[in-house]
Amino acid sequence: MSRYSMSTLRAFAAVGRHGGFSRAAAELRISQSAVSRHVAALERDLECRLFDRTTRHCTLTDEGRALHHEISHGLAQIDRGIAAARNATADPVLHISVAPFLSAAWFTPRLLGFLRDNPDLDIRLTHAYSPPDFDVDNIDIGLNWSLRPERPGIVAEPLLTGELIPVCSPDYAQARIDPDDPASLLRCELFHEFRTEDWAAWFARQSLAGVTPCSQQISDTGALRQAAIAGQGVALMFRALVQDEISNGQLVTPFPVAVSCGEAYWLTFPARQARRPALKRVLRWLRREAAATAQRLRDTEGADG
User: Fold this and answer.
1) Cα 118 from chain centroid?
2) Can you list the domains of the chain with their CATH numbers?
3) Which end of the chain has the smaller Cβ count within 10 Å, N or C?
4) Which residues pair with residue 58 across a beta bridge?
5) Are 198 and 259 in contact, with CB atoms under 8 Å apart?
6) pLDDT tens per residue across span 158-190
7) How does 78-105 read in b/e, with b if 16+ C-beta sit within 10 Å?
């Protein structure tokens, strides 16, 4: 065990980081003379100079720079360990990153009921399409659209599978689409969110491989959905997020065949936080809601069949 106190080590690390004693003292909320005493005691014990001092600032010596690197790394590990221990037993605040349209169409309507049943939790949302970088972002759970996230120490579970299906308004389907001929969609206004190749993959599922569909990109799920509802054309959309509109008749699926192009909505979180009680409560709820959504889609498929 080190014979140096945490106060001494933190004082040295702060001076090296700020390049001065006054700012280090402000960060540590102790007097500048106390910081100076800690650093002087460390230099005296190590029998080497750790800083080159001037009247305005100080810089690390070669010996000080090497020591500062190791101490800073060690203190950061200690802080992470303390934070993990604290999160495992308390801290009801959870920061969740969620894709914008998933938030509006699926997550937020369900969240209100969860918060009524869990009033002690403080859920804070950040809207982002891509999965978070848990080492940099202040995020506890990610609910985002992507290929399977592959990062060490990160748990990734499929939340909602990424099946895309063509949808349009009932009037548009009646006026423009032959329900017995998938190729009739090639004469329609087509819209996609991600890639024209997604439409090509869908036509291939209909035994129309090799066709080159003409499709306009609308790179916002909400706007894509609205274009379909407004009767502007046929949109290739994520099926789970337009199920309500299909059920209430705002949208129809002229052909019920869906295609998956690899992406999905993924639930991600750091493995190191898996035992945190607040996190476990939210994860149980999310898994239950995702399972209910998947069952509803299967029931709908059975009814269509």
Assistant:
1) 22
2) 6-89 (1.10.10.10), 93-161+263-304 (3.40.190.10), 163-260 (3.40.190.10)
3) N
4) 53
5) yes
6) 999 878 999 999 999 999 999 999 999 999 999
7) eeeeeeeeebbeeeeebbbbbbebbbbb
